[in-house]
Amino acid sequence: MNKIKIAASLICADPLNLEQEMNHLTEAEVDLIHFDVMDGHFVPRYGLYPEILKEIKKQDNCPFVDVHMMVSNPEDYIKLYADAGADYFNFHIESCNHAHRIIKKIMAAGMRPGIALNPDTPLSFLDWIIQDIEMVVLMTINPGIVGHRFIPEMLNKIKELRTLANDKNPSLIIELDGGVTPDTIPSMIQAGADALVCGNGTIFRPHEDTIKNKTKYIRNIING
After folding, report:
1. Residue 112's beta-bridge partner residues?
2. pLDDT tens track for 131-164
3. Three-state DSSP class for 94?
4. Which residues are tagged catalytic?
5. Does the pLDDT of residue 50 top 60, yes or no?
6. Half-sphere exposure (CA, 13 Å, Cβ side) for 66?
7. Domains and CATH numbers, the chain
8. Residue 159 phi/psi, 5° resolution?
9. What number is the average pLDDT over the span 33-45?
10. What CA–CA distance (Å, rounded) separates 16 from 24?
């Protein structure tokens, strides 16, 4: 089995101490920085900004950044986030009419394309594009809300996506976003997850322990 990636959800970090939080995440050797972008329209809140991304990418040994575009017009943001230094550009397929065109533009901008799917979006939306993408961000809660509980029915969807990926695109990264906790991680991995978005339920819990120690704790759970 491939190494399960820990994707640290930067929106859960301390906004007044982002530089320090990034240093802690780098020290903890997280695999990815999950960077939520929200427009207040596609989801009912606002997220992180390209200027923040540009600054964190200046840091030594910054992990790869996967940008999660929870916006109504993702095509308009491609150049902006490519210039800011995004590595993966994941957009919601529910937000667009021409997913294949957007994928090609993402690749032309030098980023790795990915698709995000809401809990009630069928996997059939991926049928003709799964071979062209490098990541699927599978929402396991409804998007745009921090702290909601994992939707248990998503386990079957994870398994179905794993089967589809193994057939059509074996290198595809299945990243789960929402409800990742020490209790849900084992079943998520068993179902076929490759990456877990870790936020308030896992590594960003300053009242309990440091980011480094919490990350180590989650890594131990992942490794069984």
Report:
1. 88
2. 999 999 999 998 866 657 899 999 999 999 999 9
3. helix
4. 36, 177
5. yes
6. 30
7. 5-222 (3.20.20.70)
8. -60, -45
9. 95
10. 14
